[in-house]
Amino acid sequence: LKDNFNVAYRRLQNLLRSLQGDKEKYSMYNETFISYLREGIIEEAKDNSNRVAKFYLPHRHVWTPSKSTQLRVVFDASSHAKDELSLNDFRTHLYTMVADIQKAFLQIRLPESHRDVTRFLWVDDASQPATGSNLKHYRFCRVPFGINASPAILNQCILKYIEGSQSEISQELSNSLYVDNVFLEGKSPDDLLHKYTESKRLFSSIGMNLRDYLSNSAHVNIGIPALDRASSTEIKVLGMLWNAMEDTISLKCGEKQANKISKRTILSQINGCCFDPLGLLTPLEEDELSWKAIKSKIIGFQVTLPRKVVQNNNSTSHTLSVFVDSSKRAYACSIYVTTTSYHGVEESRLFTAKSEIAPINKEQTIPRLELLSIFIGLGLVESTIQKINVKFEKISIFSDSTIALCWIQGNRRLPPIASNIAEIATDPIWPTDRVSNYTKLLRIVAYSARFIRKTSKDKYLPLKGEQLQTVTPSTREVMDAEILVIREQQAIFKSQLLMQNKQLNVKTDINGLYRRFGRLQNADLDFSAVNPVHIPKQSKLGVLIASHLHNAFVHCGINQLLYNIRRRFWISSDRALCKRTLKHC
């Protein structure tokens, strides 16, 4: 882990410039660090060159005027120098309550040996340059928010204490803890008030403070002291707005206008407006509207649904209905829960949904996409049953595809491969899509070709003397295997269609391979450099070749890798292929 001081210092200078015109925000920013120092959350870092590692965390502020803490300091642990290294339960009970752990991450102490990798920079006086004695080096004594491991560390610490306690709600707390949010359910308001007292006591015993309690029961809210009660009846629950008084959850798209209207901006408006773990924003209208009309519908769009979809008591029965469907571009499913009361009154409500985009690299038929929609529907049913404590008397999946349903209900038993010689002949199996190494691919094909030569009665691939004297495939056999693989990939992806474009000047050579014959026929270059072999862009073979050459030339850069590829092969978008190869190396 290399020192990140220069990056953090530049980020600090940019931050100070942005705060110069807003003294209120700077004062709140500075007060945050002063309180951290006072509470022992951070300490001033001493310059110790003997430390194994030092790392500086750049930071910025998040301004939320609607919250009690309007300015929040966020640290960026992913910053580095260039080239260096459950909600468903919340909807199943009549009475529910949520709470928040105050400064949860800052309650976990960091070991002394780990503190120097959580350094950050600040200044005593923003009006003076960030140099000399005005520049302060701090480091965290507690787990900072902004590191991707922080939530896992927090959960492990809390669960360790909760599971070791003798509290009657320890199991419920273990199952309903999400980072620094706690969800509690009860059969009655008095039950929730008892759980409030018990949860408050349990977290106090481990040095943490549960606050901002809010319930959908007015009786519970009145019974909670004002110091622990949420100031508003509307709060965010995992990204969704919960109105406790109306007991509804809402998803709302922002009203930010985009200068350019495109598919990307519209999808970002939908997916970026809020966190949607239940998939409730999956349905979209199929009307033939222009992009501007779609954009106008999205801006300020809000959907409100009842929180409670399951009335979990002995006087009701529950059934689960799954509806699946697909089109050429996507397939989706939705789950509805139907509750039947003791008097026979039925009520159905949307519980969750899911959608997937159809594969773009391989076109699928509508029946196969319908089958995929059934598949994700089954997966969603399984996860729903596991996550909520409700017994369903009946589970039904509805699909309008008779072909997909016939495939599922059919009892066909396909013959084994050994007995299905016709299948072997009509559906050859090539290892191109199953092997991740180009050399291994050629050796597999070479061994297979040798087997065919030795077992073929008509000697379709005639044996040669030097090929019988080696156990491993000879150079000639590997070259023949490469020709076989390239020819097979060109046939699959129809390279012959390139011959229709006369400007490309694509022709076949003596081995039946499609080559692009260039204009430098008299140049002092190899035949393959002047007339490279076409490798289809959609084929995985190009990826294997690029990876093989990248490793063969000692992890060379983009330009050298591009040069080595073009010495023999012609691949569309080969520079982008080289960039991907280096990125995944």
Structure description:
This protein is α+β, with helices and mostly antiparallel strands and 585 residues long. It has five domains: 5-85 and 105-148, HIV Type 1 Reverse Transcriptase, Chain A, domain 1, CATH 3.10.10; 151-249, no CATH class; 250-306, no CATH class; 317-409, Roll (Ubiquitin-like (UB roll)), CATH 3.10.20; 421-583, no CATH class. Helices cover 34% and strands 19% of the residues. It has 17 helices and 21 strands. The strands form seven sheets. Strands 7-8-4-9 form a four-stranded antiparallel sheet. Strand 7 and strand 8 (181-186) form a beta hairpin. Helix 12 (438-455) packs across helix 13, helix 15 (541-552) packs across helix 17 (574-583) and helix 16 crosses helix 17 (574-583). The longest helix is centred in the middle third of the chain and has 22 residues, at 366-387. It is extended and about 90 Å long. The two termini are 19 Å apart. 25% of the residues are buried. The model is unreliable at 285-289 (pLDDT under 50).
The largest pleated sheet is described as: 4 strands, antiparallel
User: Compute the gyration radius: what is it?
Assistant: 32 Å
User: Could you give the count of β-strands?
Assistant: 21
Shape from CA axes? extended
Are there runs of 5+ residues with pLDDT below 50, and where? 285-289
Strand order of the largest sheet: 7-8-4-9
Quaternary state reads single chain
The overall pLDDT average reads 79
Continuous helix count:
17
Organism: Heligmosomoides polygyrus (Parasitic roundworm)
Protein name: Reverse transcriptase domain-containing protein
